UniProtKB/TrEMBL annotation:
Gene3D superfamilies: Umud Fragment, subunit A (2.10.109.10). Its main location: membrane. It is found in: Membrane. GO terms for biological process: signal peptide processing. Keywords: Hydrolase, Membrane, Transmembrane, Transmembrane helix. One of its GO terms (cellular component) is membrane. This is Signal peptidase I. One of its GO terms (molecular function) is signal peptidase activity. Its EC number is 3.4.21.89. The chain crosses the membrane at residues 12-32, 152-172.
Amino acid sequence: MKRSLKILKSTVSFLLTVFIIVTVAFVVQAQLTGGKAQVLDHEILTVLSGSMEPDIETGSVIAIETVDQARDYEVGDVITYHMPNDPETYVTHRVIDVQPNEGEIQYATQGDNNRTPDLELVEATQIIGHYNGMSVPYAGYVFDYVQSDQGIVLMLMVPGFLLLISSFIQVWKIVRDTEYQEVTAMGTDNETTG
């Protein structure tokens, strides 16, 4: 039983440590790159609306395979693009039509949960990448929180607090074991002299 409990504690401790390290790494990277966390060639984004539900839930974290140059997308592909007048606002919607226009390709898009197509066609230059199906439901709420000022402070305090608690426990165990050994040694000395 003690062995199982020890393995469980070690596993939980390891997973918590990995979670904290990964979260801190994402936050630091996002802060250094202006809020854009990336893993290899995938940009990590938080979905803020329900326009793509049920395929992509509100609050999910999704991975967008970024593109350096324009490529041809087909009807049914899910793309992420920035708004023409606001490069900081991203939209992830499905391509519903591909339209050539003066040698350029434009895409008509629509959210799966929207009744009507998006009003503006998407130029190839607006496209950041495409959604490859990888999402983590509700993780976006955590991701956005840890990027806030309050979240950053918390992410710095929690590991420090856990380290402090762990140190206190270790010191307490050493003191307890030392006292036990002293009491045992005194008991043994009394038995041999008596």
